[in-house]
Amino acid sequence: MYENGRDFDKNDAQAYYWFRRAAAQGDSEAMFSVGFYAYYGRWLRADFREAMSWFRRGAEAGHSSSQAYLGVMYSLGQGAARDDAEAVAWFERAARSGNAVALYNLAVMVERGRGIPQDAKRAATLYQQAIAGGMSMALINLGYLHEQGSGVAKNEGRAVELYARAADLHLPMGMTNLAAMYEHGSGVARNLDKAISLNTKAGAAGSSRGYWGLYRIYNSKERRDLALAEDALVKASELGDSSALVELVSMLGAERQQPRVLRSSELLVRLERAARLETSVAAMMALADYYDRGWFTPVDRLQARKWLEFAAESGSDMGRWHLGRYLVQGWGGPIDKRRAAELWRASELAGNDDAKLSLAGALVSGDGVARDVSGGERKLRELIEKGHPRAKLIYAHFVVVGMLSEPSWDVVDEIRSKADAGDGFAQCDIGFLYESGTRLPKDLKAAREWYARAANLGFEWAVFRQAVVELESGSQTIRGDVALARLQELDRAGHCGAQVYLASAYMPGGPFPTDTEMAESMLRRAKANLSCEDPPRVTLLLGAVLLLEARARPEAIRLLEDAATSGVPEASFLLGSAYEFGYKVEVNPFKAREQYKRASERGSHAAAYSLAQMMMRGVGGPVDVVGASRLLGTIPAEKLQDLAKSRAH
Predict the structure, then answer these.
(1) Residue 391, in any domain of the structure
(2) How many CA atoms lie within 13 A of 56 on its CB side?
(3) What is the pTM for the complete model shown?
(4) Which residue in 257, 293, 288, 294 sits closest to 275, CA to CA?
(5) Is residue 274 part of a domain?
(6) Are 540 and 572 a contacting pair, CB within 8 Å?
(7) Which of 75, 92, 98, 196 could form a disulfide with 87 if both were Cys (CB 3.0 to 4.6 A apart)?
(8) Is the dihedral of CA 275, 276, 279, 281 positive or negative?
(9) Tens-place pLDDT, residues 580-601
């Protein structure tokens, strides 16, 4: 009476008091009611353990609803560890009494094979019995079995009938399932207006699936209306479905459209809320895309990298793969190829073939991992056999740069076909082949055209190479000042390659008038640039520039020594030359000989030649004609004459 407000005003506290008293006297219905109050948190705070305790007492006393609810709690892991077999046992006991809740839940377990062998035919029978007992949700499940032909003969008309009965009972899922049948013309004449009406009612009843149905229709060619599609996704997100926000970002980005219903700033706030509060990995990845592509805001790779870090830490394999790409390129932070390879390896183990492809490339090139050409080639061949859309292109790339052996198929044809299809990476490769005259006739005009196509797709390397080719070829197609402006724009964007190229261009022998101060300025920016792939080489160049200037001699020597210690042979050779000839430093033949030796051990022919000359004359150490002859024997004959002339100068 107190519970239902019959004869007395509704009063949960009084109702609970009397239920407890009755339960203490062994009344199984009262035990169920006490458990029900604890389960749903009526009057008192929800407490699953307390609820399970009372449901168990009622169940053991033979109360079928207590048995059914006890089964539900075991199936969901509420109040105890999830135990599907125990849940089925309680559902079976309650179902024997005709309990509709138990019949429905038992049917679900049987249909899915949870805690009991899967049996769609028995599930259909149980759903039918649950419907007869008044369990309206069973209408939807039985309708789905008829739609799929699972456990019963496929009968879309029967499915429509069952969904319609559920919709008439105001069940949102019945409405959305029936809407889908009208949308596709399954079991009923196709009628998009009815589908829209049903989805609208479901959405108004609190079903995000209803709004997803509206989005699907309004994003189709037949009823395309991006404003209504966006509105549907926003409403779905307002019902707590953060995946709708993710889809909204994807839709607007693909259409290059600004949000209409939400301001872009509000969309960003909602995405961040979903990412932080719901720990939605999909939202994190959407935010990374948001900032990476600059869809509704300027490109911000620092922010994109931050969200990829969060996604990777949350276990996203795609997050790990994309973060690895950022670490390799130095986007939004320092380059870290070793960590990139570790991320790709973890993502590959989880089944991500894109990560496997990236790791294969790292193994072939030795970027971030010990070089393992055979291991990388094996992965590439596996991906090619599996049909990965880019594996063959990447294999071809490593063939043309001389890192992999020739396959049975034509690598240039593969690269060209992908380039013609709009692949920016392939377009960069074709541009390189024309620029260098490798495998294709040298053609700087063709190289510029291919680089321009890749540049239009956002490939910074292509923008860089296009500008370099323009400057060095003296092209009249695009004035030199325009090409220079492109390089300067890349410099401002933090492109290390452009900074180093501009510095080299201002050094003696470069395409610009010599300006060592400008070269020094560019190299200092490059040295401070965390995205530079080869910091030791930047250090070498900066040291070389400073060596050309009378000032800053101590810093020049220190920088060259740092580069030499990092394994750059040119740095050791420059130091050797400086100490041998007293160029801006005091002559020190012992140091000169030591530096030449370090450089020659790292493959420098110029250093080997200079060291051999010192050894034959006994400068900076004992005479060693045999050792000098051995060194000269390591230098290709065609280079010896050029080295002799260079040293004479």
Answers:
(1) no
(2) 12
(3) 0.69
(4) 288
(5) no
(6) no
(7) 75
(8) positive
(9) 888 878 899 999 999 999 999 9
